[in-house]
Specification:
Strand order of the largest sheet: 1-5-17-7-15-18-19-21-20
Number of helices: 5
CATH superfamily of the largest domain: Acetamidase/Formamidase-like domains
Radius of gyration: 21 Å
CATH architecture of the largest domain: Sandwich
Number of domains: 2
Helix content: 10-25%
Largest sheet: 9 strands, mixed
Order of helices and strands: HEEEEEHHEEEEEEEEEEEEEEHHEE
Shape: globular
CATH class of the largest domain: Mainly Beta
Mean pLDDT: 94
Strand content: 25-35%
Distance between the termini: 35 Å
């Protein structure tokens, strides 16, 4: 009798899992003018796509600042995909930020006080090159580089590398610099440049394929938008740019009902990540540390005192970026220390 009950239970669980999988869908969100808003997050933007929790989206994104940057770096016109040209010519309402964002995606049932899991399953290049560089008045050393410079880097996606210069080969690690939700309606249009409670332009190089980003929800549906493709980036992003490019990502979005968070969190196969965002780098570091302490208390059952000590023993603080007005610090805790 006991074995029969166990077998029936297993069959029920398997059937339920199959039903859930059968109900989830995969959507295509192409790089088209009607699917892009340029330079801002805003709760008033109409959704480009509506999905259910657990659905997968294949989303295409366009290089930050558009195709002008590509041409200045030496990309020939016939090397630029037509989709980029169509978006460039069609969208004239831009700013105050520089990032074309694909979306927003409306997640059914999402409400303020919930959070979203964005599982980044795969990332591909839309064209076999990226651009790095700097412009006057920006970056970490504007007084040293008061002029503009753009550098074209050809990439070999199959080999996972890019040729920066003779004898200098870069290992690709593509990720989306900006993944964010709409801010509260009362805030109106906000720049896609500085990250904030809506998350947005984190420029966190850890968010490659295989990672998961957790975001708070501020408005019904969440209204998730994605952009600012990077082929790779160093912590700090000191010149203002990563290897700027256009990407296609496969993401799965899961709604976490009643799971309220204030600031973004993430995890990779090897680490838990807490993040701090502030115009003052010291304050960003404090916020990232507090967020990690809160995570350890809520998710691992530690006392606040023990969590603080553990952060000093096992957590590494990294400077995410220094160049987007709001600076970022991310705290990385290895999963291997937990049984």
């Amino acid at each position: 009798m006991k074995r029969s009950l166990v077998l029936l239970t297993l069959l029920f669980v398997a059937a339920r899992s199959h039903l859930v999988l059968a109900q989830t869908r995969t959507h295509e969100l192409k790089l088209l003018p009607q699917n892009v808003h340029w330079g801002y997050y805003d709760a008033r933007v109409k959704p480009a796509l509506r999905i259910a929790s657990g659905d997968t989206v294949r989303v295409e994104t366009m290089v930050a600042r558009g195709i002008e940057r590509l041409r200045l770096a030496g990309v020939k016109d016939d090397e630029i995909p037509q989709a980029l040209k169509d978006v460039e010519s069609a969208i004239t309402d831009r700013g105050p930020g520089a990032h074309p964002l694909t979306g927003p995606i409306y997640i059914e049932g999402a409400e303020p006080g919930d959070s979203l899991e964005v599982h980044i399953e795969a990332i591909e290049f839309l064209h076999p090159y990226g651009v790095g560089g700097f412009i006057p008045g920006a970056g970490t050393l504007p007084e040293d580089f008061p002029y503009a410079k753009f550098k074209l880097v050809r990439v070999n996606e199959k080999a996972g590398s890019g040729e920066f210069a003779p004898g200098v080969t870069l290992k690709l690690a593509p990720f989306f610099g900006s993944i964010g939700v709409a801010p509260p309606l009362i805030m109106g249009r906000i720049s896609s440049g500085p990250p904030g409670p809506h998350v947005g332009n984190l420029d966190n190089k850890e968010l490659v394929a295989g990672s998961t980003l957790y975001l708070p929800v501020h408005v019904p549906g969440g209204l998730l938008s994605i952009g600012d493709g990077h082929g790779l980036q160093g912590d700090g992003e000191v010149s203002l740019t990563a290897l700027e490019t256009s990407l296609r990502g496969t993401i799965r979005i899961v709604l976490r009902k009643g799971k309220k968070i204030t600031w973004p969190r993430a995890e990779t196969p090897t680490h838990y990540i807490a993040m701090g965002l502030n115009e003052d780098l010291d304050q960003a570091a404090k916020l990232a540390t507090r967020e990690m302490i809160d995570f350890l208390v809520a998710e691992k059952g530690l006392s606040r005192d023990d969590a603080y000590v553990l952060c000093s023993l096992a957590v590494d603080l990294h400077v995410t970026q220094l160049v987007d007005q709001t600076k970022g610090v991310h705290a990385m805790l290895p999963k291997s220390i937990f049984k």
